[in-house]
Design brief:
ten-stranded mixed beta sheet; 10 helices
Length: 214
């Protein structure tokens, strides 16, 4: 590992240099929804900042997934929820979807390419950068950035060969303002699910509007 750094939000994404790989983290919940979806059979995820553009893709049989202020967008098939996604595919398999969220999709719009990291795939992501410079972007949002910074710190330490205890990563997620907000509006199950550190080996790569598994 040559070097890695942590930055935040749109400004952090824009600061990615030509010789750096970018990893973006929005653990509660867009990164986690993406990782879960790809780990369970979704082949393609389109990213958009526009609700109208997402709804237009329904005609092309894309499952519409997204939220504003944490709540499912009216007219969408699913909210930005890994638990809701898993419950849905028990009866309705999803192969392609379009995602729009309050935070992650807005940050991704400023990037050509980025790997997507969650607590759910932390170790898997850490294994793909043996000798590269890395900009780890904590997306953050209206309820702070603590949970994203916690996962970013765990990833940085892992890249340097130091393992952060899973229990500590879990606490940085569950004690965040974002986790409290999600629990207050009825998404406590998502927070609990997302504390499963290293549940998946899936590594998503965003490139020019599309997320695919590496």
């Amino acid at each position: 590992m040559e070097s890695c750094r942590i930055s935040m939000g749109v400004r952090g994404a824009k600061s990615t240099k030509h010789n750096e790989c970018c990893v973006i983290i929005d653990v509660l919940r867009a990164s986690s929804t993406i990782v879960t979806a790809l780990a369970h059979g979704v082949k393609e995820i389109l990213i958009t900042t526009s609700i109208d553009d997402a709804l237009k893709l329904k005609k092309k049989r894309y499952t519409t997934v997204g939220e504003r202020k944490g709540v499912k967008v009216p007219g969408f098939d699913l909210g930005n929820s890994p638990v809701e996604f898993l419950n849905t595919i028990k009866t309705h398999p999803v192969k392609k979807m379009v995602l729009t969220t309050s935070n992650l999709t807005r940050v991704l719009a400023h990037l050509e390419a980025a790997y997507i990291c969650s607590s759910l795939n932390l170790t898997a992501v850490s294994k793909i950068f043996p000798e590269q410079k890395v900009n780890i972007v904590a997306a953050g949002g209206a309820h702070g950035v603590a949970e994203d910074l916690g996962v970013a710190l765990a990833l940085m330490m892992s890249l340097k060969g130091i393992k952060l205890q899973k229990g500590l990563v879990q606490k940085m997620i569950t004690h965040s303002l974002a986790a409290r907000h999600l629990s207050d509006i009825g998404y406590g199950d998502d927070v609990k699910f997302i504390t499963q550190v290293d549940k998946y080996k899936t590594v998503p790569l965003y490139r020019k509007g599309v997320v695919l598994e590496v």
